[in-house]
Specification:
By secondary structure, the protein is α/β, with parallel strands linked by helices. It has 2 domains: 159 residues, Rossmann fold; 66 residues, no CATH class. The protein has 8 helices and 9 strands. A 9-stranded mixed beta sheet has the order 4-1-2-9-8-3-7-6-5, with helices on both faces. A hairpin with a 4-residue loop joins strand 8 and strand 9. It is globular and about 50 Å long. It binds adenosine-5'-diphosphate and magnesium ion.
Length: 258
């Protein structure tokens, strides 16, 4: 068991069992079953179109599921998707007429959180994601990687229990992406959040995840679910470790790419 985060305890924070999702006639998810422990960073990997974004939307409470069980939180730790989820998408989706600080504050405004407190938290979060000093800039003044950092800060502003990330670094160049992977691990550790991270990058999934859930080509079914037994903090040189290669080969094989 990888225990790197004090929030990781022994009851699942998310429990999915036989989850099914249809869009009209189209079966998008046929059977998703896995658990996520509090404080884990779970990578969800699978080919394009297999239903990863759909699964995130089910977790976010944006789409109802059509079968199976989705349980998030517990009676002693109730979960309200309208307040307890932070989302990061492939595009940063910053409002171009708002300054960076104002963009980060948006969910706090929507939820009606106290503004003075939220502003101070937004500044702290911008520092956490490495954007201190950029509070008053407009999105166009930031690089793609910096914009995505701001989107991560925005996803954390209301102190959500669960952060859902949908291929957040997919549009970045390879070097920026690796840098953001390291940054995300640092932010995850500091913020102590449970994260479900969707990617079709196999190496990224293994590098980031405490656990990797592999989905087959759509309609999504579980192909594998394994713990990544690599030490934290992860470093880029781990990608050359034999174990890292074994994990990535395991996923390539499952996805029929070897
Ligand atoms: N709102 C929708 N209505 C109908 N079909 C959809 C909708 N969203 C996604 N799909 C279909 O469901 C399948 C899974 O999509 P998606 O979850 O976006 O996959 P992924 O994120 O893994 O690329 C695809 O075949 C897609 O075309
Ligand atoms: Mg998607």
């Amino acid at each position: 068991m990888v225990r790197i985060n004090p929030l990781v305890t022994s009851y699942p924070f998310i429990h999915l069992s036989g989850v099914r999702k249809v869009y009209g006639e189209h079966l998008a998810i046929s059977d998703a079953s896995f658990d996520v422990m509090p404080g884990e960073l779970v990578s969800l990997v699978g080919p394009s179109g297999c239903g990863k974004s759909t699964l995130l939307k089910v977790l976010a409470g944006l789409h109802p599921h059509d079968g199976g069980e989705v349980r998030i939180g517990s009676p002693s730790h109730p979960f309200d998707p309208s307040k307890d989820v932070g989302m990061v998408f492939q595009a940063p989706l910053l409002l171009k007429w708002r300054r960076i600080l104002e963009n980060v504050l948006l969910p706090a405004e929507i939820l009606g959180l106290p503004m003075a407190q939220s502003k101070s938290r937004a500044r702290d979060l911008l520092a956490l994601v490495g954007l201190a000093g950029n509070e008053d800039k407009y999105p166009y003044e930031l690089s793609g990687g910096m914009q995505q950092r701001a989107a991560i800060a925005r996803a954390l502003i209301h102190d959500p229990k669960l952060v859902l990330m949908d291929e957040p670094f997919g549009a970045l160049d390879a070097l920026t992406r690796e840098k953001m992977n390291l940054e995300l691990l640092r932010i995850w550790k500091e913020a102590g959040k449970t994260i479900v991270f969707v990617t079709h990058g196999i190496s990224e999934a293994v590098f980031l995840g405490t656990r990797v859930v592999v989905l087959t080509a759509g309609p999504a079914r579980m192909a594998d679910n394994f713990e990544v037994d690599l030490p934290h903090p992860r470093t880029l040189d781990m990608k050359t470790h034999e174990k890292f290669g074994e994990y990535t080969r395991r996923v390539y094989r499952l996805l029929g790419m070897e």
